[in-house]
UniProtKB/TrEMBL annotation:
This is Thaumatin-like protein. Keywords: Disulfide bond, Signal. Residues 1-18 form the signal peptide. It comes from the Eukaryota. The keyword Disulfide bond applies. InterPro entries: Osmotin/thaumatin-like_sf (IPR037176), Thaumatin (IPR001938). Disulfide bonds join C134-C184, C142-C152, C156-C165, C166-C171. Belongs to the thaumatin family.
Length: 213
């Protein structure tokens, strides 16, 4: 009886406990790491920001802000340190929802808003081992029509047409979207890309988001 009560308490505690996200910058320049919820923090190379996120949080992104007021020496101007909104595309997003259906966490790396920095998104708790990684040379190989300074736009951002923004019934990795899907097949490259791009872990799992793994 006592063991059953203890097990129940453990399950309830795990399902309501906050998750820890360790956000680390391995990029050789300063990055303004941003998160909703959480705000933002300037990270030099090798620095980590530990963020506690409440159980039940959904629709939450973490992303690196680049080309936003940093000089060539990597010194951030004060006005750029604070995170704003959900970022200005193009940027690589780590997205997650905690303690959802059957008390599972859902997480992904999204290129739907484009790409700026390589990213790894992995669980760090015992019992969940599968993570995500997008470390292709997307900026260097970006098609001319999608190029932005130091970044690569998603075609929806540039063309703003139904066929590129997945507003049609049939939506898949076609045309310019295929460029992202071929280089980072486990990442979201277009809306409705759930079957290949969303991973689950038990609620209460902790995570690491690594910029430039």
């Amino acid at each position: 009886m006592f063991s059953s009560i203890f097990l129940l308490i453990s399950i309830l505690f795990t399902s309501t406990n906050a998750a820890i996200f360790d956000i680390r910058n391995n990029w050789p320049f300063i990055v303004s790491a941003s998160a909703v919820p959480g705000g933002g923090r300037q990270l030099g190379r090798g620095e980590t920001w530990s963020l506690k996120v409440p159980a039940g949080t959904a629709g939450a992104p973490i992303w690196p802000r680049t080309n936003c007021g940093l000089d060539w020496a990597g010194r951030a101007r004060a006005k750029q340190v604070t995170a704003m909104a959900y970022g200005r595309p193009p940027n690589t997003l780590a997205e997650f929802a905690l303690n959802q259906y059957q008390n599972l966490d859902f997480f992904d790396i999204s290129l739907v808003d484009g790409f700026n920095v390589d990213m790894e998104f992995i669980p760090t708790s015992i019992g969940c081992t599968r993570g995500l990684r997008c470390a292709a040379d997307i900026n260097g190989q970006c098609p001319n029509e999608l190029r932005a300074p130091g970044r690569c736009n998603n075609p929806c951002t540039v063309f703003k047409e139904d066929q590129y923004c997945c507003n049609l019934e049939n939506c898949g990795p076609i045309d310019c979207r295929r460029f992202f899907k071929l280089r980072c097949p486990a990442a979201y490259s277009y809306p409705k890309d759930d079957p290949t791009s969303t991973i689950t872990c038990p609620g209460g799992t902790n995570y690491r988001v690594l910029f430039c793994p």
